[in-house]
Design brief:
By secondary structure, the protein is α/β, with parallel strands linked by helices. It is 30% helix and 17% strand. β6, α4 and β7 form a beta-alpha-beta unit. The longest helix is centred in the N-terminal third of the chain and has 13 residues. The two termini are 13 Å apart.
């Protein structure tokens, strides 16, 4: 049985480009659909957050403001309720070791831009996991978490790797627009990643060796499935 660590942001707010504060959290579909897919395949899925803080779901991911139908919102809400105990008692990111897991899985929502993108404990985990060939999966804005992994000279651990992420076009169409703290696609390119994006809101997943990335919430199930496939191929 594969053992997977799902790393979820603990942030509930994000400072925008204009200095204002925007409420945020994890995106419901990305946690619910990913967790359900991984669990259904027989994987053990532990949840960890910075400081073992119970993560906050982004309210926008559970209603029409976030482009989510009521039917889907009810489904995601019900699943999150079913794993409420796991979400309420996450592991502390600082206390887990990469050697304990076959894969690391990072869902998004804008929240990872606020904490995971510069979390030293996560950076340590990612670098160790990558050096061991452990599967690393990140989804949507969760790909921002990869930025926490840096080389001794300040470079980006994943420079030169091919990946996808929430695109600049999507950020302008249905995200924070020009008020975003940074455009993730552009920043990843600046840091040296090779970014491949599909059409806006398309189910797009990119696999580069042990690195699995999904573009947006629509890619949640496919990203989880690609993670499972990468595990079977080890």
């Amino acid at each position: 049985m594969s053992k997977i660590l799902m790393i979820v942001s603990a942030a509930d707010s994000l400072e925008l480009a204009d200095g204002s504060t925007h409420p945020t959290g994890f995106w419901a579909e990305e946690v619910a659909a990913s967790h359900r897919t991984l669990l259904a395949a027989g994987a053990q899925v532990d949840i960890a957050t910075p400081g073992a803080v119970r993560p906050t779901v982004d309210a926008l991911s559970l209603d029409a403001r976030g482009g989510v139908s009521e039917t889907d919102a009810e489904e995601f809400r019900a699943y999150l309720d079913s794993i409420s105990d796991r979400l309420s008692h996450p592991l502390a990111l600082s206390e887990v070791e990469a050697t304990e897991y076959d894969a690391l899985y990072i869902p998004g929502g804008h929240a990872p831009m606020a904490d995971l993108a510069h979390d030293a404990d996560l950076g340590r985990l990612l670098k160790e996991a990558d050096s061991r060939g452990t599967v690393i999966a990140a989804l949507c804005h969760g790909v921002a978490a990869l930025l926490s992994a840096t080389t001794p000279d300040g470079g980006f651990t994943f420079a030169g790797r091919t990946l996808t992420a929430f695109s600049d076009t999507e950020e302008n169409q249905g995200g924070l627009g020009e008020n975003t703290p940074y455009f993730l696609e552009s920043l990843l390119r600046e840091r040296g990643a090779v970014v491949e994006t599909g059409a806006p809101w398309s189910d797009t997943v990119v696999v580069d060796g042990n690195l699995v990335t999904g573009q947006n919430p629509q890619s949640s199930v496919t990203t989880a499935e690609a993670t499972l496939k990468a595990l079977t191929g080890r």
